[in-house]
Amino acid sequence: xxxxxxxxxxxxxxxxxxxxxTMTGKSxxxxxxxxxxxxxxxxxxxxxxVVNWDKVESDEQVWALIEVKVKPEPEAGFDSIAExxxxxxxxxxxxLASGTYDLLLVVVDKTEHKVANFxxxxxxxxxxxxxxxxxxxxxRYKEDGEILNGGEGAKRERVIL
Length: 161
Hints:
- The strands form 2 sheets. The protein has a 4-stranded antiparallel beta sheet with strand order 2-3-1-4.
- It is about 30% helix and about 20% strand.
- It is an alpha+beta fold.
């Protein structure tokens, strides 16, 4: 039952307990109890909204994917370095990954310069960080399973030869 509830909430966090009860065939009390337990046990970490910032007039947002090569610590491996990096507010997501680099960060800040400063002033000074590669995101097409600009198609100038 919990997996069904979690899938429903992950798809749409605005679904009511009553709607979930109807969808799962459980009582509202059972649904409430399962959700409360999942929140208490940190199975449910956060309810969130996916925003297409390209459609909102707001401060500029620059997204970057940063690969980080680290030297694992003898007792803690990658975990303690990852915990230090995760504390920075610019870091939206942080993953341990296979390949040439060990950690993959999704970083968001107001300008490319601020992202560059984050790398040079913060990441580079963490013990165990051996190198980084920064990729700036030019366009986001899909976020958390949602297509951001669906159906609009690419608009290109016609080339006449």
